[in-house]
Amino acid sequence: MKKDFISIKDLSISEINEIFALAVKLKKNKAKFSTVLQGKTLCLIFHKPSLRTRVSFEVGIVELGGNAIYLQEDIRVGKREALKDMAKTLSRYVDGIVLRTFEHNNVVELAGQASIPVINGLSDLLHPCQALSDLFTVKEKLGKLKGIKLAYVGDGNNVCHSLLYGASKLGVDIAVATPKGYEPQAGIVNEAKEFAAKSGASIIINNAPQKVAKGADIIYTDVWTSMGQEKEREKRKEIFANFQINKELVNLAKKKVLIMHCLPAHRGEEITDEVMDSDNSIVFDQAENRLHVQKAILIKLLGDKK
Ligand code: CP
Ligand code: NVA
User: Fold this and answer.
1) N or C terminus: fewer CB in 10 A for the chain?
2) Active-site pick, 47, 104, 290, 292
3) CATH topology of domain 131-286
4) In this model, does residue 78 exceed pLDDT 80?
5) pTM greater than 0.90
6) 283 alpha carbon, closest ligand
7) Predicted local distance difference test score (pLDDT) of residue 94
8) pLDDT at residue 48, as a whole number
9) In the chain, where does the domain assigned CATH 3.40.50.1370 lie?
10) Does the annotation mark 222 as catalytic?
11) Contact partners, residue 5, CB within 8 Å, separation at least 6
12) Which CATH superfamily is domain 8-127+289-302 in?
């Protein structure tokens, strides 16, 4: 594996499969791995709020025998001191960094300057830990990934981008419906299409939630207003009104459709209470699997290389 985990696009299919296989073992037998990262310290630098990412990484490193330091920086990266100075200093103290930030380039630059592994804990562009765990969850629930029909309904945001990379690499047929003007970035869609050409996945991007939901195995959604876009919330509520995951939309999918959401959810906006709390919803299994998959990533990146 590369030194850092910044994007799913950087992982080979065999690396993804190795992470998934290790995550299965970690989930089955937590005690067996309780000292594999003994003495290692993971530093979490977060410029945005977090429940799942923060807690799952902190608990994850501790369950592997290491320690976590959480820095909620009021000062944006590169303002108090140059990013490269921060990267070089931290490289002398800790064994890995998880960065949650706004500009994606902050993650890229930190990784370039640090001699230790850097993990993308969400940027405006990507949320790779989320999408990788989610695909692990799909495989766990449905027993396979190839040929599964995943409908993503909502904003073409960071989570959508990472799902596009992961699905296209692993052969999941992904259909994305967003309002006009909120589609995933064309560059990412094109890269995903290249991966899909190799895996056999299909990629559809349109503005028709009913069309993508039809016959889907999975319906996935995320908030309409991501962190950092709060000023647009009222405008987005109007624009996205027809992109809600509600009973009518779910009824178009397969009977056993699984409902996914990375959380936090804005209940009553992108998803109704009824759907979120239904038997088809696997949102908390998704949240749990962040822990197991991220522990596998930590072992791969911070563990002693043999
Ligand atoms: N899904 C996710 O990353 O949640 P947090 O923002 O709470 O970390
Ligand atoms: N798209 C959301 C994901 C939160 C985990 C955001 O960036 O706020």
Assistant:
1) C
2) 290
3) Rossmann fold (3.40.50)
4) no
5) yes
6) 1
7) 98
8) 93
9) 8-127+289-302, 131-286
10) yes
11) 11, 117, 118, 119, 120, 128, 129, 297, 301
12) Aspartate/ornithine carbamoyltransferase (3.40.50.1370)
